[in-house]
Amino acid sequence: MRRSSLSRGRQIATVSALAVAALVFVALFAQRHGFFDLNVYYGAVRFWTDGGEIYDFVRPNSTYGFTYPPFAALTMLPMAVLSWPAAIVVSSAATALVTWWLLRLLLGPVIAAQRWTPWFAVAVALCLVAVYEPMRETFLFGQVNMLLLGLVAADLLLFTRKGSKWGGVGIGLATAIKLTPGIFIVYLLITKRWRAAAMASGTAAAATLAAGVVAPDATREFWTSALWDTDRVGVLSFISNQSLQGVVARLTAGHPSKALWAVLVVAVLAVWFVRSRAAVARGDEVAGLAFTGIIGVLISPVTWVHHLVWLIPALVLLVERGLESAPGSRRRWALLGLAGVSYVILSSRVVWLWEGEVGGVGTLLGSNLYVWVCLALLCCTPLAARPAGSASPEGAAQLGDVDVAAVRPVRGAKSVRV
Question: What is the distance between the alpha carbons of residues 236 and 249, in angstroms, rounded to a whole number?
């Protein structure tokens, strides 16, 4: 992909071939969801604007209704005046554009370092992402995952990292739309970005209060009833729930151990705490984004496969830092190998081979493969080299020192170019 290695004609031919291959793969292996989740949003918003209560809506021939906060419903109100085909087009175009922008942002450093042709590198990445199961599921369900990831990434990499007064706004808006990005407010707190954390919290609160003023009945129902109704989101042991809670639920039928889940959550939070503080001490905001995205899907009680688009920053980092290693070195092959194996597993639908099974070592290993990949990425994605003269936050030095000793130094986040 270097500028001098392929002519423009060959680049176009390569991208065209990859695009066709990706489309064939999706046509043959992707599950057809008929934009199911988008249809829930669409139906709920139209039901609401016709005078019904949004949380009373249930999609025909299903048990699923609207599960997001009222502010999310307000952001989706334009769908009330769109036809169903137009809603599909707008949703799909928004997801595609944000995905393109995010890949261009994340790939900026490796494009510059490897002297790749930018459009060609991003086009190849888009073809690969189209095959990635969480991305396929996000697109074919009509989910909002990539839009939220885009909001958070823009906040951290373009505003918070540079000390902008607007740092935190994107995280706050994402949290008001869907509660799970609130883990990034915690990330700002543990890395002592107090102003950005306050901005994120204030933005989330202001958006939630605004929704309460505009839609008081919906707001009251969400916070007192709909939020706590776990039956609205599905069965915890369902194979698509690739969170630590899903692992515990698939261990035994009926009553998963809450104590075991709590122990696992505390353990991974401890790893995240240390790694995130070490990353920010080195100016490595992309690693902080990656680690926090991973921990968010691990500790959430329900993490459907399409939520795993939050792993994309970690996969990109593995490729970038593998390519920065010495050619032929063990580190290079280890990082690129982990990226490749993780990508193949997360594109394969292999966990579905254990659908409906509970208990047993084979089921424990196979039905939770995506969780094991998340843990591997959380623990093994390398940090950037520590900038000269910088100091780690207290508690982060030990893990940071291990990374420096074991990993060939790479560029810090300050070299990110878009």
Answer: 6
Query: Tell me: the pLDDT tens digits for 107-144?
Result: 999 999 999 999 999 999 999 999 999 999 999 999 99
Residues 6+ apart with CB under 8 A from 144: 72, 177, 178
Record the pTM: 0.89
In one-letter notation, the amino acid at residue 114 is Q
What is the separation, in whole angstroms, between the first and last Cα of the chain?
18
Answer whether 380's CB lies under 8 Å from 363's CB. no
Per residue in 224-282, pLDDT (tens digit) is: 887 776 656 667 889 999 999 999 999 886 778 899 999 999 999 999 999 999 999 99
Cα dihedral value 168, 174, 179, 184, nearest 10: -40
Q: Which two tokens stand for residue 364?
A: 């424990």
Whole-number Å distance between alpha carbons of 384 and 412 = 5
What is the chain's length?
Answer: 418
Question: H/E element holding 83?
Answer: none
Cα–Cα distance, 355 to 358 (Å, whole number): 9
